[in-house]
Amino acid sequence: MVDVAEKETMDDITFRSDAVLSDVHLHAPNKRHFMVRLNAVGQPVFLSQFKLLSDKNIGESGIKNERDCTKEDIGDQDKGKEELDDKGISDVAILNNKEREANFCLGMEALLDDDGDLEVVRRPRHETDTGGEDFSREKVFPIILTKGGEEVFEAEDQECMCRDIIKIEHTMATPLEDAGKQIWRGAFLLADYILYKRDTFKHCTALELGGGTGITSIIMATIAKTVYCTDVGEDLLAMCERNVTLNKYLTKSEGGEVKVKELDWLKDDFCTDPEAYYSWSEEEIANLHDHTTVILAADVFYDDDLTDAFFKTLYRITHNLKKSCTIYLSIEKRLNFTLRHMDITCEAYNHFRDTLNDLAKIRDQKMKYTVEPIKLSFHQFIIYERMEQLELWKIAAEPLT
Ligand SMILES: C[S@@+](CC[C@H](N)C(=O)[O-])C[C@H]1O[C@@H](n2cnc3c(N)ncnc32)[C@H](O)[C@@H]1O
Questions:
Q1: Separation between Cα atoms, residue 314 and residue 311, nearest integer Å
Q2: How does it associate, per the subunit comment (predicted)?
């Protein structure tokens, strides 16, 4: 049951003019995100499921380049996709490499118009639906399952404990300061790379900065031993922890663990206040410093001050690590026309690149940072638009003493 005041809020989901909405949620089919509850600050919370390529499927077929995609493949893929649709897992689902490649080709064709602009056209559910259909983007009509959500998760858990489905609670269209409650494409890109390079990350200890909903950390924990997923804000951290719990069946069997912790780049130290729920114990800080070899961050470079604070935190943490560490950063170059430049620019991206260059130039006798871009030619394990504005950077942080 939903009380009247809450129902009114739910019926009146308006997107504030200062709200940001991730394309990940905008393009997901309605049946894949159910509205499950309102969070502590009254924002509607949705539950989305994303299918991952399973271990079994990984070695199944040869690796193919997207331009080698044939019509036959696309035909096969369509059949596979129909099957997935029947199971209720559509645009975000993948079965095997061949299908994934074909899907990618289809996806890219569908996404670009004659000028190369992004244009999303939805495939009708049935062939017969095509006649006279309006192909414009569907509106999101969330389906409210229940208030609270617990019962839904229990029912869903019974139904879907598949090792290749990740379930994530998130909100949609938040103010910028709550952007971490949505999933961003950079999180998928980083997760893709982790799945692709799983041998590199086996049993490691990793730290994610600005983990948001926790999706990248959860995927990392299917391979790694311990992942410290960090962010700021009780509400966001609670949502992240809930996602970790929801996906225990994915990580537990591999022995991986996600620890949700507060780590604010605007503060000089770890939060150790015993009163704070997501604070660190001395043992956890010691474990982080002794064992961390991987640091992750997805789509956290959109404000210059925060970018500076991020790199300051990165510098401080890597200085205190006992071992060499590799840092992986994903970023989406969001282009805007600015009057100041009278051109299309991405100032946040430019600032990120400048800061990255500064890091590579550090010569302080203690650390050496080697920066290189990662080519995005690896395969997709999750379906999303791997657009050219997405980038992945690798930084090797080595102590000099
Ligand atoms: C665009 S979201 C990306 C979230 C997630 N990595 C993803 O890609 O889905 C940026 C993240 O940076 C986090 N963030 C912003 N300021 C922060 C700060 N001062 N300290 C730690 N995290 C911060 C936000 O809370 C948010 O989770």
A1: 5
A2: Interacts with members of the heat shock protein 90 and 70 families; these proteins probably are methylation substrates.
Residue 172 alpha carbon to ligand 1 centre in Å: 15
Q: Where in the chain is the domain with CATH 3.40.50.150?
A: 184-399
Residues 43-57 have pLDDT tens digits of: 889 999 998 876 555
Three-state DSSP state, 369:
strand
* pLDDT value of residue 55: 56
What's the chain's average pLDDT? Answer: 77
Assign a CATH topology to domain 184-399.
Rossmann fold (3.40.50)
**pLDDT at 362 > cutoff 90:** yes
CA 67-71-74 angle, to 5 degrees, is 90
257 in Cβ contact with 251 (< 8 Å):
yes
> Which residues contact ligand 1 via a Cβ below 6 A?
179-180, 183-184, 186-187, 210-213, 231-232, 236, 263-266, 298-300, 306, 309
- 149 has a pLDDT exceeding 50: no
Euclidean distance between CA atoms 311 and 207, whole angstroms: 14
Contact 98, 76 (CB under 8 A): yes
Which of 265, 269, 300, 304, when mutated, tests ligand 1's pocket best, judged by the most ligand atoms within 8 Å of its CB? 300
Ligand 1 atom nearest 215 alpha carbon? 9
> Which residue, among 222, 229, 241, 245, has the nearest Cα to 284 in the 3D structure?
229
Portion of the chain with pLDDT greater than 70, in percent = 68
Task: Output the 3-class SS for 244-257.
Answer: HHHCHHHHHHHCCE
Q: How far apart are CA 397 and CA 292, in angstroms?
A: 12
- Closest by alpha carbon to 389, among 335, 321, 325? 335
Q: Which of 28, 50, 97, 116 is nearest to 378 (CA)?
A: 97
